[in-house]
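Risk register update: the risk of archive-format incompatibility is retired. Evidence:
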Amino acid sequence: MRFSTAASLLLAAAPAALAQDLTGLLQALNSTGHSRLVGLATQLASTDVGKSVLSQLSSGSPFVLFAPTDSAFDSAPSNITSDPNLLADVVAYHIVQGNFTNSDTHYTNTTLGRTLLNDTTYVQLEGHKSQVLAWSVRSDNKTHVLNQRNDSTVTNTTTAGNITIYTIDHVLNFPEPLSSTIPADNISLTGVETALRSVQVSTFNSTTNQTGTGSLFDVLNTELRGFTFFAPNTSAVQDATNALSGFQSNTTALQALFENHIINGTTVYSPLLSSQNYTSAAGEPLSFILNGTGHYVTSGNVTAQIIQPDVLLPNGVIHVIDRVLVNTQSDSGAASSAASSASSAATQSTSATAPIGFSATATLAGPNGSTQSSGSHTGNAAPGSMYTMPTVAQVVSVGMAVLGVVAGGAFVLA
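Archived output:
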Protein backbone atom coordinates (compact mmCIF):
# COMPACT_ATOMS: atom_id res chain seq x y z
CA MET A 1 0.00 0.00 0.00
CA ARG A 2 1.54 3.33 -1.05
CA PHE A 3 1.34 6.28 1.30
CA SER A 4 -0.30 9.51 0.25
CA THR A 5 2.03 12.36 -0.58
CA ALA A 6 1.01 14.15 2.62
CA ALA A 7 1.85 11.14 4.76
CA SER A 8 5.22 10.73 3.04
CA LEU A 9 6.03 14.39 3.69
CA LEU A 10 5.03 13.98 7.33
CA LEU A 11 7.33 11.02 7.81
CA ALA A 12 10.18 12.76 5.99
CA ALA A 13 9.89 15.81 8.23
CA ALA A 14 9.42 13.93 11.49
CA PRO A 15 12.25 12.80 13.76
CA ALA A 16 13.40 9.29 12.89
CA ALA A 17 11.94 7.59 15.97
CA LEU A 18 8.60 9.36 15.60
CA ALA A 19 8.41 8.56 11.88
CA GLN A 20 9.13 4.89 12.53
CA ASP A 21 6.46 4.66 15.19
CA LEU A 22 3.85 6.35 12.99
CA THR A 23 4.54 4.21 9.91
CA GLY A 24 2.52 1.23 11.12
CA LEU A 25 -0.41 3.43 12.13
CA LEU A 26 -0.50 5.25 8.79
CA GLN A 27 -0.29 1.97 6.90
CA ALA A 28 -3.16 0.52 8.92
CA LEU A 29 -5.30 3.63 8.33
CA ASN A 30 -4.59 3.63 4.61
CA SER A 31 -5.54 -0.04 4.29
CA THR A 32 -8.85 0.34 6.18
CA GLY A 33 -10.47 3.24 4.32
CA HIS A 34 -9.04 6.22 6.18
CA SER A 35 -6.93 7.88 3.49
CA ARG A 36 -8.54 11.26 4.20
CA LEU A 37 -7.40 11.08 7.84
CA VAL A 38 -3.89 10.13 6.71
CA GLY A 39 -3.92 12.99 4.20
CA LEU A 40 -4.66 15.46 6.99
CA ALA A 41 -1.56 14.46 8.92
CA THR A 42 0.64 17.29 7.65
CA GLN A 43 -1.97 19.86 8.70
CA LEU A 44 -2.06 18.19 12.08
CA ALA A 45 1.72 18.52 12.42
CA SER A 46 1.56 22.27 11.72
CA THR A 47 -0.02 23.08 15.10
CA ASP A 48 1.22 22.67 18.67
CA VAL A 49 -1.79 20.55 19.62
CA GLY A 50 -1.30 18.38 16.54
CA LYS A 51 2.38 17.86 17.29
CA SER A 52 1.48 16.81 20.83
CA VAL A 53 -1.13 14.36 19.52
CA LEU A 54 1.32 12.77 17.08
CA SER A 55 4.01 12.56 19.75
CA GLN A 56 1.67 10.80 22.18
CA LEU A 57 0.50 8.35 19.53
CA SER A 58 4.13 7.40 18.89
CA SER A 59 4.99 7.04 22.58
CA GLY A 60 4.21 3.35 22.81
CA SER A 61 1.39 3.91 25.31
CA PRO A 62 -2.00 2.35 24.50
CA PHE A 63 -4.67 4.44 22.79
CA VAL A 64 -8.01 3.97 21.07
CA LEU A 65 -8.39 5.96 17.85
CA PHE A 66 -11.97 6.55 16.70
CA ALA A 67 -11.17 6.95 13.01
CA PRO A 68 -13.82 8.50 10.71
CA THR A 69 -14.09 6.97 7.26
CA ASP A 70 -13.35 8.95 4.13
CA SER A 71 -17.07 9.43 3.53
CA ALA A 72 -17.46 10.70 7.11
CA PHE A 73 -14.90 13.43 6.43
CA ASP A 74 -16.60 14.21 3.11
CA SER A 75 -19.86 14.97 4.94
CA ALA A 76 -18.24 16.85 7.85
CA PRO A 77 -18.38 20.67 8.05
CA SER A 78 -15.74 22.15 5.77
CA ASN A 79 -14.21 24.33 8.49
CA ILE A 80 -12.90 21.23 10.26
CA THR A 81 -10.43 20.44 7.49
CA SER A 82 -9.74 24.06 6.50
CA ASP A 83 -8.72 25.22 9.99
CA PRO A 84 -5.58 23.41 11.23
CA ASN A 85 -6.16 24.38 14.88
CA LEU A 86 -9.76 23.18 14.88
CA LEU A 87 -8.68 20.02 13.04
CA ALA A 88 -6.11 19.29 15.74
CA ASP A 89 -8.74 19.65 18.46
CA VAL A 90 -11.20 17.47 16.54
CA VAL A 91 -8.61 14.72 16.07
CA ALA A 92 -7.64 15.02 19.74
CA TYR A 93 -11.26 14.29 20.71
CA HIS A 94 -11.14 11.11 18.63
CA ILE A 95 -8.22 9.67 20.62
CA VAL A 96 -8.83 8.00 23.99
CA GLN A 97 -6.02 7.22 26.38
CA GLY A 98 -5.61 3.69 27.71
CA ASN A 99 -6.24 0.04 27.05
CA PHE A 100 -9.93 -0.79 26.56
CA THR A 101 -9.67 -4.48 25.73
CA ASN A 102 -12.73 -6.39 26.99
CA SER A 103 -14.35 -3.23 28.28
CA ASP A 104 -17.54 -3.36 26.20
CA THR A 105 -20.70 -2.35 28.05
CA HIS A 106 -24.36 -2.65 27.13
CA TYR A 107 -26.54 0.45 27.43
CA THR A 108 -27.59 1.88 29.86
CA ASN A 109 -24.11 1.02 31.16
CA THR A 110 -21.42 2.99 29.37
CA THR A 111 -17.68 2.87 28.72
CA LEU A 112 -15.86 6.17 29.15
CA GLY A 113 -12.28 7.25 28.57
CA ARG A 114 -10.26 10.46 28.66
CA THR A 115 -9.49 11.90 25.27
CA LEU A 116 -6.58 14.17 24.33
CA LEU A 117 -8.91 17.19 24.00
CA ASN A 118 -8.17 19.80 26.65
CA ASP A 119 -8.51 23.08 24.75
CA THR A 120 -10.27 25.43 27.18
CA THR A 121 -12.34 26.78 24.28
CA TYR A 122 -14.23 23.50 24.34
CA VAL A 123 -13.47 21.98 27.75
CA GLN A 124 -14.07 23.59 31.14
CA LEU A 125 -13.86 20.62 33.51
CA GLU A 126 -12.45 20.86 37.01
CA GLY A 127 -8.70 20.60 37.45
CA HIS A 128 -8.15 21.29 33.72
CA LYS A 129 -9.03 17.70 32.93
CA SER A 130 -9.37 16.52 29.34
CA GLN A 131 -12.82 15.83 27.93
CA VAL A 132 -14.16 12.28 27.89
CA LEU A 133 -15.80 10.14 25.25
CA ALA A 134 -18.63 7.69 26.01
CA TRP A 135 -19.72 4.65 24.05
CA SER A 136 -21.86 1.56 24.55
CA VAL A 137 -23.36 -1.45 22.81
CA ARG A 138 -27.05 -0.85 22.10
CA SER A 139 -29.86 -3.30 21.39
CA ASP A 140 -28.76 -3.67 17.76
CA ASN A 141 -25.49 -5.18 19.07
CA LYS A 142 -23.52 -2.32 17.53
CA THR A 143 -21.19 -0.05 19.45
CA HIS A 144 -22.53 3.51 19.40
CA VAL A 145 -20.64 6.66 20.36
CA LEU A 146 -23.00 8.52 22.68
CA ASN A 147 -23.95 12.22 22.84
CA GLN A 148 -23.76 12.69 19.07
CA ARG A 149 -26.29 14.53 16.93
CA ASN A 150 -25.49 12.09 14.12
CA ASP A 151 -25.70 8.55 15.44
CA SER A 152 -22.14 7.27 15.11
CA THR A 153 -21.39 3.56 15.16
CA VAL A 154 -18.21 1.49 15.13
CA THR A 155 -18.11 -0.46 11.87
CA ASN A 156 -14.70 -2.15 12.14
CA THR A 157 -11.90 -2.73 14.64
CA THR A 158 -8.22 -3.28 13.96
CA THR A 159 -4.91 -2.66 15.70
CA ALA A 160 -1.63 -1.00 14.82
CA GLY A 161 0.91 -1.70 17.51
CA ASN A 162 -0.20 0.07 20.68
CA ILE A 163 -3.22 1.68 19.00
CA THR A 164 -6.67 0.16 18.60
CA ILE A 165 -8.51 1.65 15.62
CA TYR A 166 -12.30 1.89 15.78
CA THR A 167 -13.67 2.81 12.36
CA ILE A 168 -16.67 5.15 12.76
CA ASP A 169 -19.13 6.49 10.21
CA HIS A 170 -19.26 10.15 11.37
CA VAL A 171 -16.85 12.79 12.56
CA LEU A 172 -17.56 13.26 16.26
CA ASN A 173 -18.93 16.45 17.80
CA PHE A 174 -17.58 18.02 20.98
CA PRO A 175 -19.95 17.98 23.99
CA GLU A 176 -22.23 21.01 23.82
CA PRO A 177 -23.32 23.40 26.59
CA LEU A 178 -26.48 22.81 28.59
CA SER A 179 -28.30 25.40 26.46
CA SER A 180 -27.67 23.29 23.34
CA THR A 181 -27.94 19.88 24.95
CA ILE A 182 -31.47 20.30 26.30
CA PRO A 183 -33.05 21.22 22.92
CA ALA A 184 -31.22 18.28 21.35
CA ASP A 185 -32.72 16.00 24.01
CA ASN A 186 -36.03 17.81 24.33
CA ILE A 187 -38.13 14.77 25.19
CA SER A 188 -36.16 14.16 28.37
CA LEU A 189 -35.13 17.55 29.67
CA THR A 190 -37.51 20.36 28.73
CA GLY A 191 -39.27 20.14 32.09
CA VAL A 192 -36.09 20.59 34.10
CA GLU A 193 -35.05 23.56 31.97
CA THR A 194 -38.23 25.36 32.98
CA ALA A 195 -37.58 24.61 36.65
CA LEU A 196 -33.95 25.78 36.52
CA ARG A 197 -34.87 28.98 34.72
CA SER A 198 -37.30 29.83 37.53
CA VAL A 199 -34.40 30.00 39.99
CA GLN A 200 -33.05 33.56 39.73
CA VAL A 201 -29.68 34.56 41.20
CA SER A 202 -27.78 37.82 41.41
CA THR A 203 -24.13 37.38 40.47
CA PHE A 204 -20.78 39.12 40.69
CA ASN A 205 -17.82 38.10 38.54
CA SER A 206 -14.58 38.93 40.32
CA THR A 207 -12.61 38.61 37.10
CA THR A 208 -14.58 41.31 35.25
CA ASN A 209 -15.97 43.14 38.30
CA GLN A 210 -19.42 42.94 36.72
CA THR A 211 -22.70 42.28 38.49
CA GLY A 212 -25.79 40.76 36.98
CA THR A 213 -28.80 38.57 37.49
CA GLY A 214 -29.31 35.18 35.95
CA SER A 215 -31.02 31.87 36.43
CA LEU A 216 -29.58 28.72 37.94
CA PHE A 217 -29.86 27.34 34.42
CA ASP A 218 -27.44 30.01 33.18
CA VAL A 219 -25.03 29.34 36.04
CA LEU A 220 -24.90 25.62 35.20
CA ASN A 221 -24.63 26.47 31.54
CA THR A 222 -21.58 28.72 31.63
CA GLU A 223 -20.26 29.49 35.12
CA LEU A 224 -19.44 26.24 36.92
CA ARG A 225 -16.29 24.23 36.30
CA GLY A 226 -17.08 20.66 37.24
CA PHE A 227 -20.48 19.45 38.46
CA THR A 228 -22.80 16.45 38.30
CA PHE A 229 -26.50 17.07 37.84
CA PHE A 230 -29.15 14.38 38.33
CA ALA A 231 -31.76 15.88 36.04
CA PRO A 232 -35.36 14.67 36.38
CA ASN A 233 -36.89 14.05 32.99
CA THR A 234 -39.95 15.94 31.80
CA SER A 235 -42.46 13.35 33.01
CA ALA A 236 -40.79 13.24 36.44
CA VAL A 237 -41.13 17.01 36.81
CA GLN A 238 -44.77 16.81 35.75
CA ASP A 239 -45.44 14.03 38.26
CA ALA A 240 -43.90 16.12 41.04
CA THR A 241 -45.87 19.29 40.28
CA ASN A 242 -48.00 19.07 43.41
CA ALA A 243 -45.01 18.46 45.67
CA LEU A 244 -43.01 21.29 44.11
CA SER A 245 -45.89 23.74 44.31
CA GLY A 246 -46.05 23.12 48.04
CA PHE A 247 -42.61 24.71 48.43
CA GLN A 248 -43.37 27.98 46.63
CA SER A 249 -43.53 29.85 49.92
CA ASN A 250 -40.60 27.98 51.46
CA THR A 251 -37.51 29.09 49.57
CA THR A 252 -35.12 27.33 51.98
CA ALA A 253 -36.74 23.95 51.31
CA LEU A 254 -36.90 24.55 47.56
CA GLN A 255 -33.27 25.59 47.53
CA ALA A 256 -32.23 22.38 49.32
CA LEU A 257 -34.33 20.31 46.93
CA PHE A 258 -32.46 21.68 43.90
CA GLU A 259 -29.08 21.33 45.59
CA ASN A 260 -29.79 17.68 46.41
CA HIS A 261 -29.72 16.99 42.67
CA ILE A 262 -26.17 18.35 42.28
CA ILE A 263 -22.72 17.07 43.22
CA ASN A 264 -20.69 20.20 43.71
CA GLY A 265 -17.31 20.72 42.06
CA THR A 266 -16.73 17.28 40.56
CA THR A 267 -17.79 15.55 37.38
CA VAL A 268 -18.84 12.02 38.32
CA TYR A 269 -19.44 9.69 35.38
CA SER A 270 -21.79 6.75 35.81
CA PRO A 271 -19.18 3.98 36.32
CA LEU A 272 -17.86 5.92 39.33
CA LEU A 273 -21.28 6.24 40.96
CA SER A 274 -21.37 2.63 42.10
CA SER A 275 -17.97 2.63 43.76
CA GLN A 276 -18.81 4.94 46.65
CA ASN A 277 -21.27 7.44 48.10
CA TYR A 278 -21.19 11.16 47.43
CA THR A 279 -22.37 14.29 49.19
CA SER A 280 -24.85 16.57 47.46
CA ALA A 281 -24.46 20.33 47.17
CA ALA A 282 -26.92 20.59 50.05
CA GLY A 283 -24.70 18.38 52.23
CA GLU A 284 -26.97 15.34 52.09
CA PRO A 285 -25.77 11.78 51.30
CA LEU A 286 -26.33 10.43 47.80
CA SER A 287 -26.16 6.63 47.62
CA PHE A 288 -26.17 4.37 44.58
CA ILE A 289 -27.14 0.84 43.65
CA LEU A 290 -26.37 -1.04 40.44
CA ASN A 291 -28.17 -4.33 39.85
CA GLY A 292 -29.75 -6.36 37.11
CA THR A 293 -32.66 -3.95 36.75
CA GLY A 294 -30.65 -0.74 36.45
CA HIS A 295 -28.68 2.02 38.14
CA TYR A 296 -30.33 3.93 41.00
CA VAL A 297 -29.66 7.05 43.08
CA THR A 298 -31.19 7.73 46.49
CA SER A 299 -31.50 11.01 48.37
CA GLY A 300 -33.42 10.99 51.62
CA ASN A 301 -36.22 8.48 51.20
CA VAL A 302 -36.58 8.93 47.43
CA THR A 303 -34.93 6.59 44.92
CA ALA A 304 -34.79 7.34 41.19
CA GLN A 305 -33.51 5.26 38.29
CA ILE A 306 -30.84 6.68 36.02
CA ILE A 307 -32.43 6.21 32.61
CA GLN A 308 -29.96 8.18 30.50
CA PRO A 309 -26.43 8.28 31.93
CA ASP A 310 -23.44 10.38 30.95
CA VAL A 311 -24.93 13.26 28.99
CA LEU A 312 -21.63 15.07 28.51
CA LEU A 313 -21.20 18.82 28.85
CA PRO A 314 -18.10 21.01 28.39
CA ASN A 315 -18.12 21.69 32.15
CA GLY A 316 -19.78 18.67 33.74
CA VAL A 317 -22.16 15.77 33.23
CA ILE A 318 -25.90 15.08 33.46
CA HIS A 319 -27.54 11.82 34.45
CA VAL A 320 -31.23 11.85 33.53
CA ILE A 321 -33.44 10.28 36.24
CA ASP A 322 -37.08 9.23 36.31
CA ARG A 323 -38.13 10.89 39.60
CA VAL A 324 -37.60 14.20 41.34
CA LEU A 325 -35.50 13.68 44.47
CA VAL A 326 -37.90 15.40 46.84
CA ASN A 327 -35.49 15.83 49.71
CA THR A 328 -35.51 19.24 51.41
CA GLN A 329 -32.99 18.42 54.12
CA SER A 330 -29.59 20.11 54.16
CA ASP A 331 -26.36 20.11 56.13
CA SER A 332 -24.26 23.20 55.45
CA GLY A 333 -21.28 21.82 57.36
CA ALA A 334 -21.18 18.64 55.29
CA ALA A 335 -21.62 20.67 52.10
CA SER A 336 -18.70 22.95 52.99
CA SER A 337 -16.50 20.01 53.94
CA ALA A 338 -17.22 18.22 50.66
CA ALA A 339 -16.56 21.40 48.67
CA SER A 340 -13.25 21.96 50.43
CA SER A 341 -12.18 18.37 49.86
CA ALA A 342 -13.14 18.57 46.20
CA SER A 343 -11.14 21.75 45.72
CA SER A 344 -8.08 20.13 47.30
CA ALA A 345 -8.45 16.96 45.23
CA ALA A 346 -8.46 18.97 42.00
CA THR A 347 -4.84 19.95 42.50
CA GLN A 348 -3.75 16.30 42.42
CA SER A 349 -2.57 14.90 39.11
CA THR A 350 -4.40 11.91 37.68
CA SER A 351 -3.55 9.37 35.00
CA ALA A 352 -5.92 8.15 32.33
CA THR A 353 -4.75 4.73 31.23
CA ALA A 354 -7.93 2.68 31.52
CA PRO A 355 -11.72 2.97 31.33
CA ILE A 356 -13.14 5.46 33.83
CA GLY A 357 -14.59 3.61 36.81
CA PHE A 358 -15.41 0.03 36.03
CA SER A 359 -16.49 -2.20 33.18
CA ALA A 360 -20.10 -3.33 33.48
CA THR A 361 -18.90 -6.77 32.41
CA ALA A 362 -16.89 -7.03 35.64
CA THR A 363 -18.25 -8.88 38.67
CA LEU A 364 -19.95 -6.21 40.73
CA ALA A 365 -22.77 -8.09 42.41
CA GLY A 366 -22.93 -8.25 46.17
CA PRO A 367 -24.54 -10.91 48.34
CA ASN A 368 -28.05 -9.93 47.26
CA GLY A 369 -27.26 -9.54 43.58
CA SER A 370 -26.74 -5.79 43.77
CA THR A 371 -23.86 -3.43 44.18
CA GLN A 372 -24.30 -0.65 46.69
CA SER A 373 -21.76 2.09 47.06
CA SER A 374 -20.18 2.75 50.39
CA GLY A 375 -17.81 5.22 51.96
CA SER A 376 -17.40 8.85 51.03
CA HIS A 377 -15.94 10.71 48.09
CA THR A 378 -14.10 13.99 48.05
CA GLY A 379 -14.43 14.72 44.34
CA ASN A 380 -12.20 16.71 42.03
CA ALA A 381 -12.61 20.40 41.38
CA ALA A 382 -10.54 23.35 40.37
CA PRO A 383 -9.98 25.91 43.11
CA GLY A 384 -12.33 28.82 42.62
CA SER A 385 -14.79 26.83 40.53
CA MET A 386 -17.14 25.69 43.23
CA TYR A 387 -20.83 26.23 43.85
CA THR A 388 -20.54 27.17 47.54
CA MET A 389 -23.71 26.58 49.49
CA PRO A 390 -25.25 29.49 51.39
CA THR A 391 -26.37 29.68 54.97
CA VAL A 392 -28.90 32.44 54.26
CA ALA A 393 -31.10 32.74 51.17
CA GLN A 394 -32.65 35.97 50.02
CA VAL A 395 -35.82 36.10 47.98
CA VAL A 396 -35.26 38.26 44.89
CA SER A 397 -37.94 36.99 42.51
CA VAL A 398 -40.82 34.56 42.15
CA GLY A 399 -39.81 31.01 42.97
CA MET A 400 -36.52 30.22 44.72
CA ALA A 401 -33.93 32.95 44.32
CA VAL A 402 -30.70 33.58 46.15
CA LEU A 403 -28.04 36.26 46.22
CA GLY A 404 -24.82 34.92 44.72
CA VAL A 405 -21.31 35.76 43.64
CA VAL A 406 -19.53 34.33 40.62
CA ALA A 407 -15.81 34.46 41.44
CA GLY A 408 -14.16 33.68 38.12
CA GLY A 409 -15.53 30.18 37.57
CA ALA A 410 -17.00 30.00 41.05
CA PHE A 411 -20.56 30.51 42.14
CA VAL A 412 -20.46 31.64 45.75
CA LEU A 413 -23.79 32.17 47.46
CA ALA A 414 -24.06 34.53 50.41
